[in-house]
Specification:
mainly alpha; 5 helices; elongated; Large ribosomal subunit protein P1; ribonucleoprotein; P1/P2_N_sf
């Protein structure tokens, strides 16, 4: 990937995209250049009009990968006593309703 970036950087700077230029850019980035990759890329790009390719790429729709879903933060667990209190209140309300029926 760094070789493609080097080629784009050279192109943007108006420099010739060749083996020597690619090698210098990659070395300047602190990466040990792989000369076989540089030769392959330089040969492949010598037959391509980079401006046309960039125009086509900018006109093509880009598929956006969905962001990885993150679990929603869970609220802190309520103490065990709280549900018991709610159950007691529900029972009291139910008993109140029954007492009204039976007087």
């Amino acid at each position: 990937m760094e070789y493609i970036y080097a080629a784009l950087l050279l192109h943007r700077a108006g420099k010739k995209v060749d083996e020597e230029g690619l090698k210098r850019v990659v070395e300047a980035a602190g990466i040990t250049p792989d000369l076989s990759k540089i030769k392959s890329l330089a040969a492949a790009l010598s037959e391509i009009n980079i401006d046309d390719v960039l125009k086509q790429a900018s006109a093509a729709p880009v598929a956006v990968a969905p962001a990885p879903s993150q679990a929603a933060p869970q609220p802190a667990a309520a103490p065990a006593e709280k549900p018991k209190e709610e159950k007691k209140e529900e029972k009291e309300e139910a008993l109140t309703g029954l007492s009204a029926l039976f007087g």
